[in-house]
Recover the amino acids of this structure.
């Protein structure tokens, strides 16, 4: 498959958005780049399994890789915004569970086959406490997409906290905008319902 722009945004985790045939890392010794490399290899295995694994098989394979690579608790807090701190713990837990399921479901749905894509990792820049891992998705049709992963040391392990599309568009900022109206009209329970519905839709293909 050739992921569309909408598919790139759909990762909650969002967020690497292609499987590499032979990943190339300009800074392979950097721990942040190594984290992306590990995720890429798992994603490639899931894609090669494709339809023989089915959605549920790809989900099970990708779930530990997604939760290990992306700092989903940080991401959902940012996506919800300031209202997160005033939510009941039960609502926070329900939102994290829904967001995690949606993040994994997006990968399992959108990356269900392999057509020779390659992901090249370039420079790794430091920005305060974070690292920006610059990558390029190279597809067989000749189209390239720039993706930058914002990563932060999370208890001794570098994890993704945001993804920038073509150097400018923040995945989390997009999600925050999408979630705002639902939170305003129906609160956290309505947002949990909305995110779960998106996961159900992904599972059905």
């Amino acid at each position: 498959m050739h992921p569309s722009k909408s598919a790139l945004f759909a990762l909650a985790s969002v967020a690497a958005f292609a499987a590499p045939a032979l990943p190339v890392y300009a800074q392979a010794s950097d721990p942040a780049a190594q984290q992306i490399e590990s995720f890429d290899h798992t994603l490639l295995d899931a894609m090669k399994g494709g339809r023989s694994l089915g959605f549920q098989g790809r989900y099970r394979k990708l779930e530990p890789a997604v939760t290990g690579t992306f700092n989903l608790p940080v991401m959902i807090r940012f996506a919800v915004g300031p209202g997160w701190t005033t939510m009941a713990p039960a609502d926070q837990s329900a939102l994290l569970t829904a967001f995690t399921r949606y993040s994994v479901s997006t990968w399992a749905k959108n990356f269900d086959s392999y057509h020779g894509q390659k992901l090249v990792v370039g420079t790794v820049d430091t920005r305060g406490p974070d690292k920006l891992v610059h990558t390029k998705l190279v597809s067989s049709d000749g189209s390239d997409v720039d993706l930058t992963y914002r990563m932060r040391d999370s208890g001794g392990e570098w994890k993704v906290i945001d993804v920038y599309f073509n150097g400018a568009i923040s995945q989390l900022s997009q999600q925050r905008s999408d979630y705002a109206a639902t939170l305003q009209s129906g609160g956290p329970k309505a947002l949990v319902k909305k995110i779960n519905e998106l996961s159900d839709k992904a599972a059905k293909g």
